[in-house]
Amino acid sequence: MVSITCVKRLNKNNSTIITYQISNVAMLPRNDVNTYNKRWTVEKFFRTGKQHLGLADC
Questions:
Q1: How far apart are CA 55 and CA 50, in angstroms?
Q2: Which of residues 11 and 57 earns the better pLDDT score?
Q3: Which of 4, 10, 35 is nearest to 22 (CA)?
Q4: What is the DSSP letter of 53?
Q5: Is this model's pTM higher than 0.70 or not?
Q6: pLDDT band at residue 58, thresholds of 50, 70 and 90?
Q7: How confident is the model at residue 49, as a pLDDT?
Q8: Within 10 Å of residue 32's Cβ, how many Cβ atoms?
Q9: Most exposed among 1, 23, 43, 45, judged by the fewest C-beta atoms under 10 Å?
Q10: pLDDT of 53 above 90
Q11: Are strands 16-23 and 3-10 parallel, antiparallel or unpaired?
Q12: CA–CA dist 3, 44 (Å, integer)
């Protein structure tokens, strides 16, 4: 089963952003969004490490 969650947010310029999150794990939409937000923080951490700390060569 695949679940699709539609999230509507305001960005820094107060314009509306709509994102669609697709998952193969059945969970409540709020939990799906929270999990995505946590994962995005991890992705940003690794990107920063690769760009600024030279971890891309590891």
A1: 4
A2: 11
A3: 4
A4: S
A5: no
A6: low
A7: 86
A8: 19
A9: 1
A10: no
A11: antiparallel
A12: 25
